[in-house]
């Protein structure tokens, strides 16, 4: 069974083609500058040189057609023809309250995704465009939706409701949804396997720290709270997003600098976070290097980011505890021993005993424990694999083996699973 995974953004389409029987990625690629003009495709195939072709894609349908042609014809082909593709999995950012797990897309599901697009006006419309484009280019192939929000739909009301006029929730469904669901799902199942426990017996804090950053409090294997909210802007300090701030600040700054609501929104999403603090960097590697060379603002940025991580650990320890483990994942979580060390320092009183040597050695891949042997609460570094969750959901839905992620046994939940 060959599965095409698609992630359609407003001006890009990322894809990967996966052979389920052989458990191997056949090709990965990206069409950039869709609609914007100057579009091109880049495709990587293991053992081959990258393939690049410039071709105008004025819409998502042309981009998807280009992807299909690249995979099936000419020098970059990896499958003989489109009939080899058994299904297409679509990343859909917002599933609102309706979608609590991955689903096969039909007219009614597509309409329901449309109904919640006001909650993610930048993300859901291109996701919908991708679904419509595949339906037109590959009309016989089943489409499956995998939602960023679905894993967090187990949160209780007291965690997802804001202290705002209640009718905002009733009228517009203003509430916490949370994102990065497939990543939190994957690393929480892996952590349970590393602990030698059933997932439903584990209490965890999972920290996805990349450009986007979100944390999840997991009790008995399910999400009971998460740091991102109605949108991905809430929570931790991120690459360019501010995370938690006094909600009065936007109004104050709009008056001070005569900003429109859209300008304010752009500043909080694109010019804040570690970029805002340092004034020049989003990549934590640049920040760490500059801090080592004595840049005060970069040093301050590391202190702010790691302090906020520590505060979330404290808060979620209270929410999810008694805790089994804290898990670090994504670009920063998997690779930056320094940020992990700064976040976990002096937490012995909470039962987290960092082993500095293990932590320094846990970089560049592999699942590692970074606390000392006697630590009551463990800390792990676990490389995330969102693609695998995606592919397993699609394969299981096609086979009729999946009703809901909570009742489904993923391959990576098994103790003998070997990460890719
Ligand atoms: P996203 O998918 O949200 O774009 P990633 O999970 O790929 O982000 O993480 C990207 C970030 O990971 C980069 O911005 C960089 O800051 C960080 N990163 C990667 N490697 C390292 C490293 N060795 N040390 C510190 N940060 C790193």
UniProtKB/TrEMBL annotation:
General function of this protein: Catalyzes the formation of acetyl phosphate from acetate and ATP. Can also catalyze the reverse reaction.
Q: Which gene encodes it?
A: ackA
Q: In which pathway does it act?
A: Metabolic intermediate biosynthesis; acetyl-CoA biosynthesis; acetyl-CoA from acetate: step 1/2
Provide the binding site for substrate: 91
Q: Where does Mg(2+) bind?
A: 7, 386
Biological process GO annotation list?
A: acetate metabolic process; acetyl-CoA biosynthetic process
Localization (cell): Cytoplasm
Q: Which cofactor does it need?
A: Mg(2+); Mn(2+)
Q: GO molecular-function annotation terms?
A: acetate kinase activity; ATP binding; magnesium ion binding
SUPFAM superfamilies the UniProt entry points to? Actin-like ATPase domain (SSF53067)
Give the cofactor binding note.
Mg(2+). Can also accept Mn(2+).
Q: At what residues does the UniProt record annotate the site feature described as Transition state stabilizer?
A: 180, 241
Q: What name does this protein carry?
A: Acetate kinase
Q: Which reaction does it catalyse?
A: acetate + ATP = acetyl phosphate + ADP
What is annotated about its quaternary structure and interactions?
Homodimer.
Q: Of which family is this protein a member?
A: Belongs to the acetokinase family.
Q: Where is the active site?
A: 148 (proton donor/acceptor)
Keyword Cytoplasm in record:
yes
GO CC list: cytoplasm
- Organism placement in taxonomy: Bacteria, Pseudomonadati, Thermodesulfobacteriota, Desulfuromonadia, Desulfuromonadales
Q: Name one Pfam family in it.
A: Acetate_kinase
Q: Its Enzyme Commission number?
A: 2.7.2.1
Kindly list the positions annotated as binding ATP. 14, 208-212, 283-285, 331-335
**Source superkingdom:** Bacteria
Which of UniProt's keywords are assigned here?
ATP-binding, Cytoplasm, Kinase, Magnesium, Metal-binding, Nucleotide-binding, Transferase
What organism is the protein native to?
A: Syntrophotalea acetylenica
